[in-house]
């Protein structure tokens, strides 16, 4: 899993690539904790390059989302496609979060 | 696509060895030209089952072991996952609250993995026999003809 962060306007854009599974979920949560220390309030999570996601990956996304919402921030998703999108749908995540086709759209709304 | 049966068998002693199983699935996929989305579903189902077993089935078990056979035969993928853990019926796991908003979910997302297995595979069965847990999953390799929904719980044993 690779984790790149770009700051734009009031949002931290989290570009995730590779595998979001049990092996990488603690790494993801650590990266997120570091971003909260840097003052992250709102986040756009770019899932375009995520190759694989399991329930462990979904749990780490919930961890991030709960922390953001507890701080009254906002979390949005973009770049979902294929089977990763299907897993999002089945798990009920599509109904829980604002999801946009592109990151630009996620930032504009 | 060849219709001849192709199987791999391996013994896993820890979650770290799951990558061996991923290699076996990749090898099957390459030999039988399986669509990437189907490879993803199969890998995900095996990942969830193996992770659950290592997380819950082995308290106090001196030599934890999961014996996995994965096969393709006549356009169908199936896997048999046998472990020497404590009786562990995954059908008893609570369904996650997937239809509730985040703030209203009281439970941690326990059971989400098994829920995904049931939704992504055409069939998922479990039974306890002779001191071991048996889990079996099947799906068609041609995802267009998938009998989705069959794994929603009615076929649980």
Q: How is this structure best summarized?
A:
With 109 residues, chain A is of the alpha/beta class. Chain A has helices at residues 25-37, 55-70, 82-90, 93-96, 103-108, and strands at 2-8, 11-20, 42-53, 75-78, 99-100. Chain A has a single domain (2-108), classed as 2-Layer Sandwich (Transcription Regulator spoIIAA), CATH 3.30.750.
Explain this structure.
The complex is a heterodimer of chains A (109) and B (157). Chain A has helices spanning 25-37, 55-70, 82-90, 93-96, 103-108, and strands at residues 2-8, 11-20, 42-53, 75-78, 99-100. With 109 residues, chain A is of the alpha/beta class. Chain A has a single domain, classed as 2-Layer Sandwich (Transcription Regulator spoIIAA), CATH 3.30.750. Chain A is globular, with a radius of gyration of 12 Å. Chain B is of the alpha+beta class and 157 residues long. Chain B has one domain (6-140): Heat Shock Protein 90 (2-Layer Sandwich). Helices cover 29% and strands 25% of the residues of chain B. Chain B is built from three helices and five strands; from the N terminus they run E-H-H-E-E-H-E-E. Chain B has a five-stranded antiparallel sheet with strand order 1-2-3-5-4, with helices on one face. The interface between A and B is medium-sized, with 21 and 26 residues.
Instruction: Please tell me the CATH architecture of chain A by its name.
Output: 2-Layer Sandwich
Q: List the secondary-structure elements of chain B in sequence, H or E.
A: EHHEEHEE
Proportion in helices of chain B: 25-40%
Which architecture of chain B does the CATH hierarchy give at level 2?
2-Layer Sandwich
What's the layout of helices and strands?
The complex is a heterodimer of chains A (109) and B (157).
Chain A: E1 2-8, E2 11-20, H1 25-37, E3 42-53, H2 55-70, E4 75-78, H3 82-90, H4 93-96, E5 99-100, H5 103-108
Parallel strand pairs in A: 2-3, 3-4, 4-5
Antiparallel strand pairs in A: 1-2
Helix pairs in contact in A: 1-2
Chain B: E1 6-12, H1 18-32, H2 36-56, E2 66-73, E3 76-83, H3 112-120, E4 123-129, E5 132-140
Antiparallel strand pairs in B: 1-2, 2-3, 3-5, 4-5
């Amino acid at each position: 899993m690779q984790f790149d962060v770009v700051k734009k306007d009031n949002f931290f854009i989290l570009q995730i690539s590779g595998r979001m599974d049990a092996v990488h979920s603690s790494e993801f949560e650590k990266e997120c904790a570091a971003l909260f220390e840097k003052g992250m309030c709102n986040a756009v999570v770019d899932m375009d390059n995520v190759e694989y996601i399991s329930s462990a990956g979904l749990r780490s996304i919930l961890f991030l989302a709960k922390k953001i919402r507890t701080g009254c921030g906002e979390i949005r998703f973009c770049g979902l496609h294929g089977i990763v999108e299907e897993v999002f749908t089945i798990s009920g995540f599509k109904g829980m979060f604002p999801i946009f086709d592109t990151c630009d759209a996620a930032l504009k709304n | 696509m060849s219709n001849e049966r192709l199987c791999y068998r391996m013994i896993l002693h820890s979650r770290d060895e799951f990558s061996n199983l991923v290699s076996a699935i990749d090898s099957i996929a390459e030999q039988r030209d399986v669509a990437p989305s189907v490879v993803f579903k199969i890998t995900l189902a095996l990942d969830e089952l193996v992770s659950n077993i290592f997380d819950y089935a082995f308290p106090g078990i001196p030599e934890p072991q999961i014996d996995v056979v994965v096969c393709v035969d006549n356009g169908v993928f199936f896997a048999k996952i046998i472990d020497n853990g404590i009786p562990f019926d995954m059908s008893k796991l609570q369904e996650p609250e997937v239809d509730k908003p985040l703030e209203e979910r009281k439970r941690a997302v326990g059971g989400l993995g098994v829920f995904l297995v049931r939704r992504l595979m055409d069939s998922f069965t479990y039974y306890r026999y002779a001191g071991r847990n048996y889990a079996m999953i099947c799906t068609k390799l041609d995802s267009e003809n998938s009998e989705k929904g069959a794994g929603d719980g009615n076929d649980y044993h």
